[in-house]
């Protein structure tokens, strides 16, 4: 059986799809694992990331990341989109997938438009509380909708498609223990630790806050700080300026690809943005968080953060209010046992570590022409209560 995954552009569309791909491949009987094909576009991250995962990649004429600034691409992007619809139809006719999973974004539009007349069943996943424009445009063409937030399901109710709250597909967060993670990062077993990372967007605000707060921070906690490549040298210089006995409490990193899971498992508090994958991993691990939503991108992160804060799992600091004092104040959570315990429990209750398995179950049901599982079954899988 062949299945097709359509997605591209940013990691927020690609990594969740790769998590579902991993679940689809990890069948009890390896002989039943489906063949996977990925359909992406140009300009996005998918070509390298997906090939590294051992999945065959095909690409459409469109660019996975839609142009925002005015340029020649403002004119060319709609033309590329129009060309990509018949191109997607030709690829689907040739590949003949039993079902398609798409994670939204620009790539999903021509794929959904091509799949409908070919009667290839489609599962559409939306990771934000406010559905994106592409998802809104094609939701009615899907056979099942998977959403990370109930608010997104309500917003898409007009599509009249079976909708499931699955959460965001993530990597296996149980792959490393806390003790092993702390050993890997050379952290003391019981030292209060904070992880600070701003993702790929507007990270300078986080770096400025860390630089100004660092002497006060390291007196209270151990700090894991993802600075980005351009600010890494400055972070190292700031570390050397600390008293020798405190330097070991500050660990700057240009990035944390292979060690990101270890950093999350090892930490006691996360300060970061509110991307769907970040929220999913933090809650799956039951980590309290202080969220500084990225103020642009149609307010998606603000809506994500508000849902998490309403559940009691996070506190929100507005982007314009995030500075050194706000960062130091965030560490108060680590010294308030009642607040830390309550937020950790709320995060764990909110998390859906089995989201990838839940979405894989929907895709396989459609591919095998079986009835879709009930929302109760999918919710149990997503929460990790069923394999």
Question: What does this molecule look like?
Answer:
The protein is α/β, with parallel strands linked by helices and 387 residues long. It has two domains: 197 residues, 3-Layer(aba) Sandwich (Rossmann fold); 173 residues, Glycogen Phosphorylase B (Rossmann fold, 3-Layer(aba) Sandwich), CATH 3.40.50.2000. The chain is built from 16 helices and 13 strands. β1, α1 and β2 form a beta-alpha-beta unit. α3 packs parallel to α4.
Helical fraction equals 40-55%
So, CATH architecture of the largest domain?
3-Layer(aba) Sandwich
- The first-to-last residue Cα distance is 21 Å
Strand/helix succession:
EHEHEHEHEHEHEHEHEHEHEHEHEHHHH
Write the layout of secondary structure elements.
Elements: E1 2-6, H1 11-25, E2 35-42, H2 46-52, E3 56-63, H3 72-95, E4 99-102, H4 108-118, E5 122-126, H5 133-138, E6 144-147, H6 150-155, E7 163-165, H7 178-184, E8 193-197, H8 204-220, E9 222-226, H9 232-240, E10 250-253, H10 260-266, E11 269-272, H11 276-284, E12 289-291, H12 300-310, E13 314-316, H13 324-330, H14 337-350, H15 355-367, H16 375-382
Parallel strand pairs: 1-2, 1-4, 2-3, 4-5, 5-6, 6-7, 8-9, 8-11, 9-10, 11-12, 12-13
Helix pairs in contact: 1-15, 3-4, 7-10, 8-13, 15-16
């Amino acid at each position: 059986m062949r299945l097709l995954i359509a997605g591209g552009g940013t990691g927020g569309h690609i990594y969740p799809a790769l998590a579902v791909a991993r679940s689809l491949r990890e069948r009890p009987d390896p002989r039943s694992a489906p063949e996977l094909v990925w359909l992406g576009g140009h300009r996005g991250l998918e070509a390298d990331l997906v090939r590294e995962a051992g999945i065959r990649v095909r690409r459409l004429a469109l660019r996975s990341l839609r142009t925002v600034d005015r340029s020649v691409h403002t004119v060319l992007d709609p033309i590329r989109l129009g060309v990509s619809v018949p191109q997607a139809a030709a690829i689907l006719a040739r590949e003949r997938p039993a079902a398609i999973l798409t994670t939204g974004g620009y790539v999903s539009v021509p794929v959904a438009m091509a799949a409908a007349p070919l009667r290839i069943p489609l599962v559409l996943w939306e990771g934000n509380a406010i559905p994106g424009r592409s998802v809104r445009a094609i939701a009615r063409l899907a056979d099942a909708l998977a959403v990370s937030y109930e608010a997104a399901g309500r917003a898409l109710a007009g599509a009249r498609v079976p909708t499931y709250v699955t959460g965001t597909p993530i990597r296996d967060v149980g792959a490393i223990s806390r003790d092993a993670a702390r050993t890997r990062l050379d952290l003391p077993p019981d030292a209060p630790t904070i992880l600070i990372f701003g993702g790929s967007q507007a990270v300078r605000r986080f770096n400025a806050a860390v630089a100004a707060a660092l002497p006060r921070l390291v007196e209270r906690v151990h700090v894991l700080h993802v600075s980005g490549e351009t600010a890494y040298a400055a972070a190292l210089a700031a570390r050397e300026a600390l008293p020798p006995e405190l330097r070991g409490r500050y660990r700057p990193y240009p990035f944390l690809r292979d060690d990101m899971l270890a950093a999350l498992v090892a930490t006691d508090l996360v300060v970061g943005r509110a991307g769907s994958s970040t929220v999913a991993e933090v809650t799956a691990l039951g980590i309290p968080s202080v969220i500084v939503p990225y103020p642009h991108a149609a307010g998606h992160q603000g809506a994500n953060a508000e849902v998490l804060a309403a559940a009691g799992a996070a506190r929100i600091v507005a982007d314009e209010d995030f500075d050194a004092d706000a960062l130091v104040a965030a560490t108060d959570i680590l010294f308030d046992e009642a607040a830390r315990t309550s937020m950790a429990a709320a995060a764990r209750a909110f998390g859906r570590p089995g989201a990838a398995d839940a979405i894989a179950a929907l895709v396989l049901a459609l591919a095998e022409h079986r009835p879709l599982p009930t929302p109760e079954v999918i919710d149990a899988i997503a929460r990790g209560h069923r394999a």
